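Students often ask what a holo structure prediction actually looks like on paper. The answer is less mysterious than it sounds. You provide the chain, you provide the ligand, and the output is a string of discrete structure tokens encoding the 3D arrangement of the protein together with 2-acetamido-2-deoxy-beta-D-glucopyranose.
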Amino acid sequence: MAVFVLLTLLLMQAVSRAERDASDAEPFSVPIPTNITIQSYNMNPILYWEYQTMPQTPVFTIQVKNYRHAKWIDTCVNISHHYCNIFNHIDDPSSSVWARVKARVGQKESAYACSKEFILCQHGKVGPPKLAIRKKENQIIIDIFHPLIIVNGEEQGVMYDDENTCYTFMYKAIVTVNGSEILDRIHLQTEDDCNETQCTLSIPATSVNSQYCVSAEGISDTWGVTTERSKEVCITVFSNSITGNFLPFFLLKIKGYN
Ligand SMILES: *[C@@H]1O[C@H](CO)[C@@H](O)[C@H](O)[C@H]1NC(C)=O
Ligand SMILES: *[C@@H]1O[C@H](CO)[C@@H](O)[C@H](O)[C@H]1NC(C)=O
Ligand SMILES: *[C@@H]1O[C@H](CO)[C@@H](O)[C@H](O)[C@H]1NC(C)=O
Ligand SMILES: *[C@@H]1O[C@H](CO)[C@@H](O)[C@H](O)[C@H]1NC(C)=O
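The corresponding structure tokens follow.
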């Protein structure tokens, strides 16, 4: 009995080796795409791959599979460029998707090459918030606008709502006066200071003739994602109704951020 099983195994191995050799030796077998990556910026996920130079132009077909539906769905078919936007095939940005690509040259096709698991909320990069700065009475008001979802150059909404858009960011603001950092960890909570378009930060403008500059970045603890840092915006305070130099700088709701 044991001998029979062993013989059968050996035979099966020999057959499968022979099959592999036959396919390797096929004269015009089509190579599979390589380096399959999904990259996303501002929730615009794009699949990229690489392909070797061929005498005849290859075309590619891409399929995407969602965790929930667990079925491969055609996404881009017979395209000749090396990228495919998969935004429309992600129905839940917080769950996994996979993508795969095959190449066709003439009548022959390669096998599929598959991407790694991709979770849009977790693996996507997010651009900076936009800032606006103004002076109001003796305060400097900074508006921090949530990053926008931009798909194929079109605005699709604002990142503010964990469920549909992954993130409700907390913002860290970096404030300098005359170029020296005075407080680098202002932690804006969401409820009082923020709404669905922006967060608003105000700091007392206590130093006359001083230039105040602010930049900010958003932080999502849920996904461990930090946005890119915004450009610095600056304002110079020339005169001020507050007298005395030693008023506490920050009277507003500020929390230390660690
Ligand atoms: C794979 O693609 C990434 C992103 O386009 C690139 O940085 C990397 O160098 C590529 N790797 C190889 C082995 O070609
Ligand atoms: C893609 O190309 C193949 C081979 O030329 C063809 O059979 C198929 O119909 C094409 N599919 C689409 C959607 O154009
Ligand atoms: C959000 O807050 C800002 C500043 O407090 C306000 O100007 C803006 O109208 C608010 N937006 C909405 C949609 O409530
Ligand atoms: C910033 O510089 C201006 C002029 O150079 C000076 O008058 C002002 O006191 C400085 N502010 C601080 C906080 O050092």
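The first strand starts at residue 34 and ends at 40.
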